[in-house]
Design goal:
This protein is an alpha/beta fold. The chain is built from 9 helices and 10 strands. The termini are far apart.
Length: about 240
């Protein structure tokens, strides 16, 4: 993709987020290295989406710091964070349903110099060429998920946070999405991805961070995560170890 540059790196230190006495994140340290795909996994309620909401500026942390390519993000608003090169997707479709795929990407690109040629590249990269002039209200679910990734990429990020991008996808659509995500580091975009579909996520991840009850309990290679007693216990309630 044109105009992206080098992949971005993220450093999170001591991140804590409390809601009315409930601790959603507790002293979380996390890194996304430039050019890698990081999987962020954990049981329901483990704090994964809260983590992304804090990093991207939708929530303010109770304590802790978030730094992107040397720039502190803590306290900055989501639009400013996006301008610095960090984009995110959401669990639900976020497109304007009364516009076409191309029109939605034009809107997402408003903060940058308009480049129809680059936009066409993005449409092709995300497998949306055949539906570029289709109203978003009529898109099949799998294409809505791809469009969500495309909308994030339209802002020309150097780091993408993907929140359950494969949720509800067929095996074919999930395979297509996995191929797209795998290509992003070569396009100048680092990736942190949440997903409950571990057969989808672990094969494309360079590294895995596991959260449980708001705490980080594992950080390492995907093959090591599968054999971790702490990870097995978090997901199944008991360990085989």
């Amino acid at each position: 993709m044109r105009g992206v540059g080098k992949p971005g790196a993220l450093t999170v230190r001591g991140l804590t987020k409390r809601f009315a006495g409930v601790t959603a994140l507790a002293e979380v340290d996390l890194e996304v290295r430039a050019g890698e795909i990081l999987a962020v996994v954990g049981p329901n309620g483990s704090g994964k989406t809260t983590l992304f909401n804090v990093i991207s500026g939708f929530y303010r942390p109770t304590t802790g710091t978030v730094v992107f390519d040397g720039v502190p993000l803590t306290g900055k608003k989501p639009d400013r964070i996006n301008q610095l090169g960090l984009a995110r997707t959401f669990q639900q479709a976020m497109a304007f349903t009364t516009g076409t795929v191309r029109e939605n990407l034009e809107i997402a690109q408003l903060a940058h110099t308009d480049d129809p040629g680059w936009r066409a590249e993005l449409i092709a990269l995300c497998g949306l060429t055949e539906v570029a002039e289709t109203m978003c209200a009529g898109l099949p679910y799998g294409l809505q998920r791809k469009l969500g990734v495309a909308l994030g990429l339209a802002t020309r990020p150097r780091l993408m946070l993907l929140d359950e991008p494969a949720a509800g996808l067929s095996d074919t659509d999930a395979d297509d999405l996995a191929a797209l995500i795998t290509s992003l580091p070569q396009q100048g975009v680092s990736v942190a991805c949440i997903d409950h579909n571990l057969p989808f996520l672990l094969p494309i991840a360079d590294r895995v961070v596991v959260l449980d009850a708001g705490r980080k309990i594992f950080d390492g290679a995907p093959e090591e995560a599968r054999g971790s007693a702490a990870v097995v216990e978090a997901y199944l309630g008991e360990s085989d170890a």
